[in-house]
Each structure stands twice: as structure tokens, then as C-alpha cells.
Amino acid sequence: MTQIIYGSELSAELKENMRSKVESWVSIGMRTPCLAVILVGDNPASESYVRGKEKACAAVGIKTNTIRLSSSISQEELEKTICDCTKDDTVDGILIQLPLPEGFNEDRAIACIDPQKDVDGLHPLNFGRFFMNQPSFVPCTPLGIMELLNRMECNPKGKHAVVIGRSKLVGTPVARLLQNANATVTICHSHTANLKELTNLADILIVAVGKPKMIDAQYVKEGAYVIDVGVNSVDGHLCGDVDFESVAPKAGAITPVPKGVGPMTICMLLQNTITAYEKRQGL
Questions:
Q1: Is residue 14 part of a domain?
Q2: What is the pTM of this model?
Q3: What domain range includes position 178?
Q4: Number of structural domains found in the chain
Q5: What's the alpha-carbon Rg for the chain, to the nearest Å?
Q6: Options 15, 63, 97, 116, the catalytic residue
Q7: How far, in Å, CA of 251 to CA of 253, rounded?
Q8: Is residue 219 domain-resident?
Q9: Are 96 and 151 contained in the same domain?
Q10: Among 268, 221, 222, 260, which residue's Cα sits nearest to residue 241?
Q11: Quick check: is 15 in a domain?
């Protein structure tokens, strides 16, 4: 029987533990953890994502300081705002809502974040430390994927993991996390030859390509653990990069879309913010 693992359920459990931890700090007179969210422009999707993060933070007791900036500001003004948050001792984590509007340099903006407040794990120093197996923040979606594999009772040690997608947000860091967990990892992408042949060798299959229902049962090994990272809108309905109806009967465990990886990404953002708070408070 295939396990269907809902990130929405797992994240609710993890957030309850976070809420208890924050309440215990506040009850003894410590300040509330704070996440600064910087939103540039009025992109509806970005606005929606920010509201979701604000709601999730409120649910566990994390304060949010959302800074809304006009898309007409300069790169320098944006960087000053980020630096101000970096200097603010009441701010534990800083998140720049991406993508930035056209004309802004995202890499320059991210580089302005204090690495100790970089709860998205995108600062070059954190990325480098992560790949050197040094303490660092790690991007939230890969962390969420590892939590989902744990919920599936999937120990990556000795297993063959295939990751489809090599972005710096998901594919590349999750491949590293799987390597660190002693899996043998193959990274596939748009130029990979014989994709189906490779994915059929996968005990663990992570799909993050942004193509609706690209992966069907022909690509999946019997009993594989399948994590679908994609979120696509087709005819007004959300679907993943995996054809769920086709793959689910063949998989040993699988995440759905929606209610799969998405809730875990936000959950790990909260966890990273709490970790930043703990480090800054010496806990």
C-alpha cells in the first residue's frame, strides 16, 4: 500500500513544537523572535506568499516585520533597507521575497544580508559553508524534503537517489543533503540523456523541474520514494511535476500537490528563524 505523505500534516506537528518553545521563552521575559520580510513591488503572487509567511509566523508566535517597498526605488535604497535590518538587534531573520522586479540585482541584494540572519540560506557564505560541511543555514525546501523522507521512514544511506533539477534553491542543495546522508546521488537536468533509464534506478526520486505531470509511472521504479517539488497551475487547478494518479500506485511513498512540499518549505523557514534566534540568544 502506497504511503501518501502530507507535508501539511507534518508541518502542523512541527509548528506546534515551535509554538511551545517560543511560548516558553516569552513566559520568562525573553523577547519574541522576529523575521523581517522585504517585499519590493506589488506582484500578486509575491503578496500572497508573504501573507502566507506572516500567517505561519503568527501561528507559532514569531513576530513579522514586513517592509513593503515600491518597485521604483533604486538598488542602493533596497540594499540600505537590508543593511538596516542586519543592524537591527531585534531582527533574527531576514527574507527577501523573490523574484525581485526587473532591474534589480538579486545576488547583490542577498549579499547584503548578515549570514547569521540569512534564514533562506542563499547568502554566498552560507552556501559555501554548507558545501564545506560547516555550520550554516540551508535553503528551506531541501530541508523540508529531508523531513518528508524521514516521515516516510526512508533512510537514504546506501540508496540511489535521483534528483531531477539542479537549481540553487532546490536541486543542488538537496543533492548535497542526500550525499551527506550517505545516498548515491545522480543529478539530472534538461540536457540529461536517457532520463527514463536513470530514474528507473532511483530508490529516491526528487522532481523539481516546473513541468506539469512530466514524470509518469514509466519513469518510476517499483516501491520508490517520490518527492514532488513542482507547483503548476493547469486549467485553474494545481498539480505537480509528477503525474500523481499514474505514479502513486507504483510508488512506495509519495507526496501530493498541493499539501506536500509547499507547507514544509514555510515550516523550515520558521525553523531557521528560531535557530537564528537561539544562536543570537546563546541558547
A1: no
A2: 0.95
A3: 140-262
A4: 2
A5: 19
A6: 97
A7: 5
A8: yes
A9: no
A10: 260
A11: no
Does residue 211 carry a catalytic annotation? Answer: no
Q: What's the CA angle centered on 14, arms 91 and 24, to 5 degrees?
A: 55
Q: Report yes or no: 105 and 75 within 8 Å, Cβ to Cβ.
A: yes
- Strand (E) or helix (H) holding 271: helix 261-281
| DSSP assigned state of 116 | G
121 found inside a domain = no
Active-site residue, selected from the candidate residues 53, 63, 213, 221: 53
Whether 97 is a known active-site residue: answer yes
166 is in an annotated binding site: yes
CB-based burial of residue 200 (10 Å sphere; 0-12 exposed, 13-18 middle, 19+ buried)?
Answer: middle
103 and 181 housed in the same domain: no
167 among annotated binding-site residues = yes
- Which stretches does DSSP call E strand in the chain? 3-4, 34-40, 63-69, 93-96, 160-164, 184-188, 204-207, 225-228, 232-234, 237-239, 253-254
- Return the CATH number at 197: 3.40.50.720
DSSP string, 158-219: T-EEEEE---TTTHHHHHHHHHHTT-EEEEE-TT-SSHHHHHTT-SEEEE-S--TT-B-GGG
Tens-place pLDDT, residues 13-71: 999 999 999 999 999 999 999 999 999 999 998 999 999 999 999 999 999 999 999 99
Question: Catalytic residue among 120, 203, 228, 243, which?
Answer: 120
Written as nine digits, the cell of 260 is 506536500
The verdict on whether residue 231 carries a ligand-binding annotation is yes
Chain segment 125-180, per-residue pLDDT in tens = 999 999 999 999 999 999 999 999 999 999 999 999 999 999 999 999 999 999 99
Statement to judge: residues 150 and 93 lie in one domain: no
